[in-house]
Amino acid sequence: MAVSEHGEAAGSVSGGCVESAVYEMAREALKTGEPAGETFAVGDEDAFAVGLPCGASLEIAVQAVGAKKFAQRSALADAVLPHMFAGPRPDAGTVPFLEVALRTPAACIGAMGSRRTHRDRMRRLREAGVPEAALARLCSPIGPDLGGRSAQETAVSIVAEIIALRSGGTGRAPSTTTAPIHRVDPRAVEPHELLAPT
Predict the structure, then answer these.
(1) What three-state secondary structure class fits 136?
(2) Are strands 138-139 and 109-110 parallel, antiparallel or unpaired?
(3) Residue 15 lies in a domain
(4) Is 170 part of a structural domain of the chain?
(5) Which residues lie below 8 Å from residue 162, measured CB to CB, with a gap of 6+?
(6) What CA–CA distance (Å, rounded) separates 7 from 22?
(7) 45-58 residue pLDDT tens
């Protein structure tokens, strides 16, 4: 999530749960120049009471950065995700954002969450009129089961699914398949073609 000195915000850290608190932390960090951090947590038993599909614990780190990671102000306006404070507020399943994303030609559209969250999300998308062909494109819950638990391991799992979708891989261990281990990208240029006379 990024917040500018003018109050513009882009991206999300939780899909709506703690956005306002993180926004205020970011504004304060911009004023003082000091980094800040805080942990937000809610148990599964209390999640529905605050509009969440499942419990979670978030460790938030806020750091002020100079104008150089954003070369111009429009970088915020061009962010991939609609921001939380001027765009539509997502519900617990981020349905409004997914509804828009599924109408784009994006190669991979994924959403995190439990299986219960996934079922609720699919119900909401169907109620919003998203066709089944579009729903079939949604990778949810995203990321193959690698057995990881940390944020870093979850990120690796998500990237693994993106690579598999891009390259046509199965996501299975090579010892359980008969496909070539190193697939040939049909768009790739063969080395001898680089030396061919023009």
Answers:
(1) coil
(2) parallel
(3) yes
(4) no
(5) 108, 110
(6) 13
(7) 666 555 555 667 77
